[in-house]
Amino acid sequence: MQKELEVIVIGGGAAGFFAAISCKTHNPNSKVTIYEKADKLLAKVKVSGGGRCNVTHACFSNAELAKYYPRGGPQLKKAFAQFTTTDTVKWFESRGVKLKTEEDGRMFPVTDNSQTVINCLLQEINKLGVVVEMHKPIMAIEKETDGFKLTLRDKVIHADKIIIASGGFPKKEGFEWLEKLGHAIEPPVPSLFTFNMPNESVKSLMGVSVENATVRIIGTKLKSNGPLLITHWGMSGPAVLKLSAWGARILSDLNYSFKIQVNWLGDMNEDKAREVFALERELHPKKKMANSESFKLPERLYLFLLSKLEIDPDTTLEQLGKKNMNRFLNVLLNDEYKVEGKTTFKEEFVTCGGVSLNDVSVNTMESKSCPGLYFAGEVLDIDGVTGGFNFQAAWTTGYIAGKLSTTTAS
Q: pLDDT category, 111, cuts 50, 70, 90?
């Protein structure tokens, strides 16, 4: 007679919940327990997307989807063959959580409330009989001949299989317990952070956003484009967040002190910009610079740039000399700012780094050095850009890791 399969899931976030649900779905007779060290479940789900929960992204080609991950893309491309965006949408909608797609491809519940997603996941684990233990940090894990021994603060427990979905850690020391089990750790550094500009007056434009800007890190090949938001500490928005993700290690090595170049006109080049401005000047020579509509930038930003160049906003287009016209076009296309520091948001913290993917079988998410141990989510050296990609990686890796329950213990 086969004994009941005992599965422990470490971490009560998106990946942990989905792994536990997958476990019970594939093997209803298994006993699955989630151990969460904190007093909150699904904390990132709660705050994601400004409290709306960016469930996934409307990218339905696995090859294209994999390109949104600065680390782990090739491995995820294989993993998406088992559970991809389409599966995520079907999974939630079949449980009453209808999703909508916004213009930029992000997908949210139609309720615009992350609690809808949280309630769905909680209802599912309750329905399946998954047990949740709160305030229960795992102090140590030991491999035994027939499973694992886990040490908690107040007791020792045993499991046949373990799924680690503990999320990322800001320092490598946080991964020591996994190193002891034979796993290589890629040192963690922050990803998805905003740029601090303590000495730049552009901060006075806090709240101004540009629909499409291109941002480059001077001295590197790093470049990103998309919406850009000016904040009271510097710059944020998808253009900056994507850049921070792709450049996570490089920017860490620079100690977050570097210069950026901003093209406020997105992907417009100098020839096109000259052509656009020349046409307006030809048609409306008496129009004041302050009222120029050539580039349709937010008024506050536009006036700020004129002030930066010490160009009088009352200057007419025909009065703007060749030298000032060149300076004007240059600041639109090649504006520079000094970045000195970053801001990360604790609840939405994403790391570059974690358990090396060389140590994990992508088809099963099982550890190569410690059979019976599986991984899901950000504890792995996988991270995506902003836009729902990190949650999609959590759903996919959680689903695959949870399938271990189809293999019962004897």
A: very high
Distance CA 247, CA 385 (A): 11
On whether the 6-190+346-406 domain is CATH 3.60.15.10, my answer is no
Cα gap 257→164, rounded to integer Å: 35
Residue spans of the domains in the chain: they are 6-190+346-406, 193-343
Read off the pTM: 0.92
Q: Please, which residues have CB within 8 angstroms of residue 201's CB and are 6 or more apart in sequence?
A: 304
Helix (H, G, I), strand (E, B) or coil at 99: strand
Q: What secondary structure does DSSP assign to 359-403, as a single string?
A: GEETTTTEESSSTTEEE-GGGBS-B--TTTHHHHHHHHHHHHHHG
CA distances for 339 relative to 34, 189, 260, 398, angstroms: 41, 17, 7, 37
Measure the N-to-C terminal CA separation of the chain; round to a whole number of Å: 8
pLDDT score at 346: 63
Average pLDDT of the chain to the nearest whole number: 95
Model confidence band, residue 408 (pLDDT cutoffs 50, 70, 90): very low
